[in-house]
# Entry
Amino acid sequence: MRKTLTLLFVFPSLICFAQNYNDQLKHILSYSQENFDSDTCCWHRLSADKKYLEAANLIVFYLQTDNAINKHSLNWHCGQMFAMANSNKLAKKHFKRTYSIFYKLFGDTDAKTWYYYAKGTIAFIDNDRKKLQAIIHTWKANYPSDINLETLIRLNENWGLSYENAY
# Structure
């Protein structure tokens, strides 16, 4: 009897919580990408609180909306959030959605360096230091330095650490 009474009081509050959560999620998913991506909102706030899986999953939901304009950027940040949470298989899945071999073969300098940045990040996640170092070497020999190259160098210098700590 006591368990039944507890369920009668707890279950409606759980339903109310779920409904409020669902309403809040619907509201967030209706944001423009500019608002969704702002530093004071949504997945950025979750990331700042080290709630990386929640941030990644929120981006996954957002990618399914019509408001997702720059899917390249969203997939990259989703991959980063999964990598921060050590969900490396999901991280690589989203990272791989941001480049193709055509970037390297036919792209301009920005496309080619993006290709190397993404491949280098995946090499770090895969624990393939030789590949990461080869990418850094190729970049330094053929393309101008930028913040993404500096990130790959930092990943290499912090070898053995998690992506979260090395990044």
The chain has one domain: 2-166. Confidence is low (pLDDT under 50) at residues 4-18. DSSP finds eleven helices and no strands in the chain.
